[in-house]
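Ligand: magnesium ion. Inputs:
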Amino acid sequence: MEIDGYTIDESRLPRHVAIIMDGNGRWAKKRKMPRIFGHRTAMKAVRQAITTASDLGIEVLTLYAFSTENWKRSAEEVSGLMSLAIRYFLNEIKSMNDRDIRVRVIGDISGLPEKVQEAAHKMLADTADNQGMVLNLALNYGGREELVHAARKMAEAGLSPDQIDEAQIEKYLYTAGQPDPDLVVRTSGEKRLSNFLLWQIAYAEFIFDDILWPDFDASCFYKWIVEYQHRDRRYGGVK
Ligand code: IPE
Ligand code: IPE
Ligand code: MG
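Predicted complex:
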């Protein structure tokens, strides 16, 4: 397929793409605007990433929206982000259903403000029967928290040591049953994971792009897919 000048092999698409959407604050700062203005503008980029991934036929898209460490930010920024999340969950249900997208929230939902939890549950329930792309929104998500949560659940289930193996642990992750990310992209030029999907990214390909998240558009996504398709994935073997 030729699109926007990029040649994409549709038979070798990543099944799961995960994005660390970073750089909203710096984008706003460059414009002498408050950080929340960057987050608000970023919502357009979020919509664009979702439509682009679903149009391409990606099976799972994971977007890192709020980490377990992001509570360290000012009360004003945190509440601004929470309000955006509520508005997003309530306003985007129709567009998710139009595209047959099933929304999941990954992370410690119970640690979110009540109103965010309610809006998230509505979005989850109203899209639960959709059969198209799965959209994981990582909210109050931390890779370490996810592993602690999984270990606790396994203990609660009374699993014996010999029952615990990689496949069993996978069943207790927030992403249970989903393919691992093939491609992880981080925008804004930072080259770190910031506690994202620690278990699942064991064999992911990484792309670090300097673009600030609010500037993202569909052509960035195509460029990343092309770069991904040039990678040689060996999984420890020899080719
Ligand atoms: C990413 O943008 C969005 C969230 C973490 C919620 P940032 O807010 O981290 O933007 P920078 O990194 O400060 O530019
Ligand atoms: C990672 O970005 C979290 C999200 C994009 C939601 P941060 O901006 O919070 O990460 P650090 O602080 O640069 O590591
Ligand atoms: Mg950041």
